[in-house]
Specification:
homodimer; alpha/beta; Arc Repressor Mutant, subunit A; Aspartate Aminotransferase, domain 1; Aspartate Aminotransferase, domain 2; eight-stranded mixed sheet; transaminase activity (chains A, B); DNA-binding (chains A, B); PyrdxlP-dep_Trfase (chains A, B); transcription regulation (chains A, B); PLP-dependent aminotransferase family protein (chains A, B)
Chain lengths: 466, 466
């Protein structure tokens, strides 16, 4: 967070220079006064000023202070325009961009486990059914046939009441989270988020400039006393929650906590943003009903990703919420992309309501459970601990304290093996002894080989330490 | 803008109440002190406070000031949570949601003019070519085969140099504009924008909280003296420009101004965001080269919407820019939706590079030109004036000064006829005597009937005035 802060401050000064509010030769505010103004530590401002000095935008006059450079204002003399961006990097997508033979970083389903042939022939049928699907814009809220079907589906499958008017179709759950964040959260607002959590959600709220508060998630679920305390004291705008086969941990918040959490959200008027991406990937019993099925007063916003384990290339997710929030989401969605493509919605709908779907999902569950078991068997080692998940795509594994995570990741990448380090799943960036290993993308053989390699690397690093 | 401002202030106070920073019984800052703090007129703060009073969140104690209500804090006693959204409505999408028999508000191509059958059979072919297209996530930047092809296309067709690495695929140009705005613009930054312009672009910048400066656009193009003055004085972050068959006017910025504008952008380090959505819809000569083809130092960001007149249901646009901006756009795109669906990109690519494409576009140009001429013939009236456009989808028509625009729109909607009022295309909301009539969505017969109806309504309103 501190690192983030000093870059922000540097950015603010750069903006002022670029806007001409600070001109060449002007004195910058003193470190002490700017620290006071922004409510940050003086060292943070100092670091920001040093960075600006390093970049050549400001100069230091001994005992007098920092001045905007006469000759090297960022507006002049550069080959490219200065890009002072308001968006910081996406940590997860950076890891994904690195190629590896053993990709345990991808919580994505192996295309070989998906019914490609069937999807393709179903798609051809859909093209015949809707001859103008290519030339028609979808409604901003989404195709009404699909929303009707989902309304029915949610009631039948998870006792969740949602009229078609309370459903919006988004291009995947990442867009849904971003959409909701944009409507409800602004710089300086407080957001409550699980720890650990889905790192791209951290990035979304972080980029907006939200203040993040963390709610611990363990194999037993939440600490509701902690959550109530935080809600009472900070009145966060929303709580980003992924209560079912959570990413990255695989943990599931127990039934008895769900109703209580919704009550807390009502009591403190906090929106619960429930990300439900893995509900159908269970290995034993069906998971508890979503938080949102207990919602009475409209405090829940439900995000359900469907395409992930059917046809991830389609990018389809549903958002369920009540008025008046839905009107706000529609306004934002129309500015963001004017609506998810109709073609993708129709293709998804026809596959989703086919008899073939249940058959596929059952097979998929079995295949993933086998892969999970292969990974767990290969991983078995007294130095490594994890809670065996009853669903989802990932193992959340604790490695020995002595292991340096940066070193481990670098070594693994060198050996063409990728995983997600726990630190990027932690809003506080401190969970240094955890890794997320996904068993969904590699086949059993690859999992065996890769995990053996992973353990060899761990052993090597362990020896170095001793 | 003032209207926007007072709502903002109300919002800020509401946020503070919701966050518990202002508690029931607390006194609000005085009108005078808050006006001073925010640098706005006292009347604006007064209006905001009155609105809060009206909503029941604050109460007035005579000669003492405004207080947060004891019993009616927005956090308590409501059926639904208070949705203090950070997104305001999208004006255009609101008009589009109203059904009308004569839709002159839709700058969208009539599905009957699109090659639906061919697109559909081409799509089936693509499904056979890429059997795993449904199960594969696209790269965040877009499909490399498509980017390679576009790189070639831009060079061949418009002398524009763009390597595949300098091209990003977005889900339509609305998303592209939103993406760029998010990376480059933040609350309080200055944005230069044409007047009139595409209303959804106004909404995007407006929602971010940018300060909008306007550059007049007439049939002769820009006033470059005005633009230089604005760039010099305000150093805007970017200039949103739609120089070719502009929406809503149909005007085209002449060749000789294009190079000069790029020079100005370089001189003052302003990004030129060039929205090029109608380039292929010309009725006589091909339009001048894009601004971006004159770009040397990376000040241009080019947004090209393609799917609009081929397969709008696919939602495909290209963004062209140089490093380091591209890295920033990639980070933002990965947070926004993790990449445009691969299926849509492959379908688009195969259609776009087929021989059939040129044939289709030529037919489309002819069909649209005929519709334009039918609209112009039907519209002919000495009270109505417009500049006949040489491309694009719209007429920008001046109606008599005496006509009240709200009345005209209401009357037309009552008679099942829609158009876009000039005011929503004007960042200053003042162009009250203009309407945008699109000739792309209705066939000739409908255009004749609808325009006759439109003129009858105008006559009726004119008589009322006399």
């Amino acid at each position: 967070m501190k690192d983030h802060l000093f870059r922000q401050i540097g950015q603010t000064i750069t903006n002022r220079i670029e806007r001409g509010e600070l001109k060449p030769g002007d004195k910058l505010p003193s470190v002490r006064s700017l620290a006071l103004e922004l409510g940050v530590h003086r060292l943070t401002v100092f670091k920001a000023y040093q960075q600006l000095k390093h970049r050549g935008s400001v100069t230091v006059v001994d005992k007098s202070g920092y001045y905007v450079k006469e000759d090297a204002s960022p507006l002049v003399g550069l080959d490219y325009p200065v890009v002072s961006s308001y968006v910081h990097k996406s940590h997860l997508s950076e890891i994904h961009r690195i190629h590896a033979d053993y990709q345990f970083s991808q919580a994505v389903i192996d295309p070989d486990l998906l019914p490609n042939q069937y999807t393709s022939s179903s798609a051809k049928h859909v093209l015949d059914l809707y001859p103008k699907v290519f030339s028609t814009y979808a409604a901003v809220q989404g195709d009404s046939e699909l929303r009707d079907y989902l309304s029915h589906y949610f009631y039948q499958n998870q006792k969740q009441l949602a009229s078609p008017e309370e459903i919006l179709i988004a291009s995947g759950s990442q867009q849904a989270i971003d959409l909701i964040a944009r409507v409800l959260v602004r710089r300086g607002d407080t957001v409550l988020i699980e720890r650990p959590t889905y790192s791209a959600a951290i990035d979304v709220f972080h980029n907006i400039g939200a203040r993040l508060l963390t709610a611990d998630l363990t194999a037993e679920g939440y600490n509701l006393v902690q959550i109530e305390k935080l809600m009472k004291e900070y009145r966060p705008r929303l709580f980003y929650s992924n209560p079912t086969f959570q990413n990255p941990t695989g943990y599931t918040v127990p039934l008895e906590q769900r109703k209580q959490l919704v009550d807390l959200a009502e009591k403190y008027q906090v929106f619960l943003l429930e990300d439900d991406a893995f509900r159908d990937i269970y290995f034993a019993d069906k998971p508890p009903l979503p938080l949102s099925s207990y919602d009475v007063h409209g405090h829940c916003i439900y995000v359900r990703s469907f395409s992930k384990y059917i046809a991830p290339g389609l990018r389809i997710a549903a958002v369920v919420c009540r008025e008046p929030l839905m009107q706000q989401l529609l306004a934002a969605k129309s500015l963001m992309d004017n609506g998810t493509p109709l073609l993708n919605q129709k293709l998804f709908l026809h596959y989703f309501r086919s008899d073939r779907l249940q058959q596929h999902i059952e097979k998929l569950r079995t295949a993933l459970e086998i892969r999970k078991e292969v990974m767990e068997t290969s991983l078995a080692d007294q130095q490594l601990t994890w809670e065996s998940p009853s669903g989802g795509l990932n193992l959340w594994v604790r490695v020995p304290d002595a292991i340096n995570m940066d070193r481990l990741l670098a070594e693994c990448l060198t050996h063409s093996l990728s995983f997600v380090p726990g630190t990027i799943c932690d809003p506080l960036k401190k969970q240094e002894h955890w890794v997320r290993l996904s068993y969904s993308f590699m086949n059993e053989q690859k999992i065996k080989e890769g995990i053996t390699r992973f353990k060899d690397i761990l052993k090597k690093l362990n020896k170095e330490i001793i």
